[in-house]
Write a structure and sequence with these properties.
The protein is about 30% helix and about 25% strand. The chain is of the alpha+beta class. Helix 3 crosses helix 16, helix 5 crosses helix 6 (about 270-285) and helix 6 (about 270-285) crosses helix 7.
């Protein structure tokens, strides 16, 4: 009941791309927000009052804890302009955020307050710093700005943000919003989103349309541009750099997003993908550890999750032929990163072919993910070694890398246990870790998954995986069991990112390591089961409800899976140059491809419940396998699925 807070009613709340509003009941204020690429824009509609206040809180955050704010500062430049910064530690260990805030009309008074208990107060104590004093520094700073308002009077606030300094924030503010027309900025934001969401047009029932475009909206929310309007940005070395020839990006949740989010962006935005890859290469150049990003966030590396999954994003972009990326530079960054001693167990992995359980509690998962990443380096190196016009030194380097990483990519065989039929954690002396429970997600050498799901994690060598499992029919039976058996809650009780809402049998769709598994039937004699599984997931695990996602969207990965699957194809192995085909969840689609003819997708069937693709044609030619080349599809054309109520 105390402090600055207010009740609100859900019926007064509205959210749409580029706009948010809510009515705050206690002060009787309508709050509205919109944005441009460089700045945020607020509009507050007040009642009649001689004590209307706008509060600036440099303490609060979504994930708050004592000591999160390392330093903060506010400067009141004049009665309409306020600048400052906040340095925090959290997901980004040292995050710098500078701001410049402009009000549409002068405030009549203001106050600053620091609730931090400081041992040394200095000679600042001679001033009353809490009332109309123009600056304050500390760790628990809040400010308020006071106005007289008439009934329905609006006060607008524009804010520019920067990681480089207040000068950058002021430049971003000036470039971001030139006038005070809130509705015009809101309309521009909506038009920008409409333009981007319009890159894919589909026909489908209303609920499917809502789910599809919600998913597409999610996929476009990150990575985000991380630079000032003049190209300056704070690097991972905390020095100020200028992006030359590319736009700098941040928020790379790569353990999640290399699977489908980045391949989707590469399809829709090859130019932005080049910028993202060059941002990763700049990160490599600046990194004190001399590595590509693992999980980079606002000029910081937070080392979240396993593997070196910037590698497949970089390799896939080069293999696709996306212009604006130096292939030789990309390969060297990938190779150096993959040999970086800071990665868990990498020295043992290079020597033994697997990561022993003594050096990593996630050793089996780490081994499998390293093997896939190494495959993409081998693919990139093979491509570069055969490219014309490269130097002999680069050709030799690429040839050696292709061979070495091709061998490394087969290390998964070292942790397969033929007696149990599962991938398992193995000790340095070669013995298997015991006790072993293939259903448990805890203490078995896997991260956010169990042996059942991770044993299918060989996207780069599915034929090799099928052979390990005993051939076609045993492999199909194993896949069938994954989707139909029961996984009791006790098996994932200690794993926060695996929950009942995202589980189908023992298949965990609510977390990323399993996302390719429904498409593995394509390598068997029963590819139509991919169609069954994909449609079941689309229809039950993505819903138009507040809790409609079955797991953490993880910067768009969960939603990118939906977009690909609804369109009828999926990148099981990014870097392979191939898509696995499924069965579309839409009636038709048109995908705009920059600089290419559009990709047209048609579904011809006898009814809306036809989930089986009995035949697929590409530009009039019947496809005799459930795959299509990336280069073919991304060159534009027409993909037609003939569907029916049962498999052919």
């Amino acid at each position: 009941e105390n402090g600055y807070r207010s009740r609100y009613r859900k019926e007064t709340e509205k959210a749409e791309p580029g706009y948010y509003r809510v009515f705050l009941d206690e002060p009787g204020v309508l709050a509205e927000l919109t944005a441009t690429e460089q700045a945020g824009f607020h509009r507050y509609t007040f009642p009649a009052s001689d004590s209307a206040r706008i509060i600036l809180d440099l303490v609060h955050g979504i994930y708050n804890y004592e000591g999160k704010v390392l330093s903060a500062h506010i400067r009141v430049v004049n009665d309409t302009l306020v600048t400052g910064y906040r340095i925090t530690r959290g997901w980004a260990r040292t995050r710098y955020l500078y701001f410049a805030m402009a009000f549409s009309r002068p405030f009549k008074a203001y106050g600053l307050k620091n609730e931090e208990q400081s041992v040394y107060r200095g000679f600042w104590r001679r001033f009353n710093q809490e009332e109309n004093f123009p600056e304050m520094s500390g760790r628990k700073i809040r400010a308020h700005f006071e106005f007289n308002t008439g009934q329905g009077e609006q006060i607008l606030v524009k804010t520019g943000l920067s990681a480089t300094g207040m000068e950058g924030a002021l430049k971003n503010l000036a470039a971001g919003i030139r006038g005070w027309d809130f509705d015009e900025v809101r309309a521009s934001a909506l038009a920008a989103w409409e333009r981007e969401l319009g890159r894919i047009s589909i026909s489908a029932e209303t609920e499917r349309m809502v789910n599809f475009y919600t998913a597409l909206y999610h996929t476009l929310q990150s990575p985000v541009i991380y630079q000032d309007v003049d190209g300056r940005y704070r690097g991972v070395d905390h020095e100020i750099h200028r992006a030359e020839g590319f736009t700098n990006y941040t928020i790379f949740s790569l353990w999640d997003t290399y699977r489908a989010e980045h391949p989707l962006l590469a399809l829709l935005y090859p130019g932005r993908t080049a910028d993202m890859v060059n941002s990763m290469l700049a990160h490599f150049d600046q990194s004190p550890e001399n590595m590509l990003p693992v999980w980079s966030h606002h000029g910081n590396e937070n080392w979240c999750m396993i593997g070196y999954h910037a590698v497949p994003v970089v390799a896939d972009a080069v293999i696709r032929g996306i212009p604006g990326i130096d292939p030789a530079r990309a390969l060297r960054a990938c190779v150096v990163t993959a040999n970086n001693p800071y990665y868990e167990g990498i020295t043992d992995y290079r020597e033994l072919g697997y990561v022993p359980s003594e050096v990593s509690s996630n050793s089996a998962s780490v081994t499998l993910e390293y093997a896939y990443d190494d495959y993409t380096i081998s693919r990139l190196a093979t491509l570069l070694s055969a490219s014309p016009g490269i130097s002999e030194a680069d050709r030799k380097y690429a040839s050696e890398a292709a061979k070495a990483f091709g061998i490394r990519s087969q290390g998964y065989q070292k942790i397969f246990d033929p007696k149990t039929g599962f991938m398992r954690a193995r000790r340095r002396d070669g013995t298997l870790q015991t006790p072993f429970d293939p259903l448990s997600t805890h203490g078995q050498g896997f991260i956010e998954g169990n042996a059942w799901n991770y044993s299918f994690y060989l996207p780069h060598d599915v034929p090799g995986m099928i052979s390990l499992f005993g051939g076609d029919q045993p492999f199909v039976r194993r896949l069938d069991s994954l989707f139909t058996m029961h996984l009791d809650d006790r098996h994932f009780a200690e794993t926060e990112d695996v929950t009942r809402s995202g589980i189908m049998g023992n298949y965990v769709h609510g977390n990323e390591p399993s996302h390719h598994i429904p498409y593995l039937y394509n390598w068997t004699t029963q590819p139509w089961k991919t169609h069954e599984r994909v449609h079941s997931i689309i229809n039950t695990l993505y819903r138009n409800e507040p809790d409609g996602l079955c797991g953490n969207d993880d910067c768009g990965q969960m939603s990118a899976w939906y977009i690909f699957s609804a369109l009828g194809f999926y990148p099981v192995c990014p870097g392979s140059g191939e898509y696995a085909l499924g069965s579309p969840g839409v009636g038709s689609a048109r995908v705009e491809l920059p600089g290419k003819p559009p990709l047209l997708i048609e579904v011809r069937g006898s009814g809306g419940n036809d989930v089986y693709a009995r035949s697929v044609t590409w530009n009039g030619k019947l496809l005799n396998r459930p795959f299509i080349g990336q280069a073919e599809l991304e060159g534009g054309g027409t993909l037609i699925f003939e569907t029916g109520p049962g498999p052919k």
